[in-house]
């Protein structure tokens, strides 16, 4: 019985995940250029470019903060490096990264470049 329920839930999860869309914003930039031809007519040229968070330049501080997080996250090394307030860093250490939730939020912020110290 447990196997049937597990397989049913797995198939349901697979069906739902196929309808998922990108969870990050994709900005579309459309530029229009009007060209005047020699015979007096005008022609519009449009070009579209997509910018995503992945296209953002990865900084050296981001690399160092990510490595510090991977190897020393229980000691809040990434937070000390990015100059977070001392009280919050100590609280991070005492609560073991907010039971992992706070640590996960920090990792996502560092990877996306949204952490305040970057």
TrEMBL record:
The keyword NAD does not apply. This is TM2 domain-containing protein. It is found in: Membrane. Its main location: membrane. The keyword Transmembrane helix applies. It comes from Nonlabens dokdonensis. Keywords: Membrane, Signal, Transmembrane, Transmembrane helix. Residues 61-108 form the TM2 domain. The chain crosses the membrane at residues 63-81, 88-108. Residues 1-22 form the signal peptide. It comes from the Bacteria. It is a multi-pass membrane protein.
């Amino acid at each position: 019985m447990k196997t049937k329920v597990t397989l049913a839930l797995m198939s349901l999860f697979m069906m739902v995940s196929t309808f998922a869309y990108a969870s990050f914003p994709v900005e579309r930039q459309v530029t229009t250029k009007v060209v005047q031809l020699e015979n007096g007519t005008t022609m519009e040229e449009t070009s579209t470019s997509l910018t995503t968070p992945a296209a953002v330049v990865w900084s050296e501080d981001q690399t160092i903060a990510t490595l510090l997080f991977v190897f020393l996250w229980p000691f809040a090394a990434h937070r000390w490096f990015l100059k977070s307030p001392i009280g919050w860093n100590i609280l991070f250490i005492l609560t073991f990264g907010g039971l992992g939730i706070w640590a996960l939020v920090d990792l996502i912020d560092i990877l996306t470049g949204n952490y305040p110290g970057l």
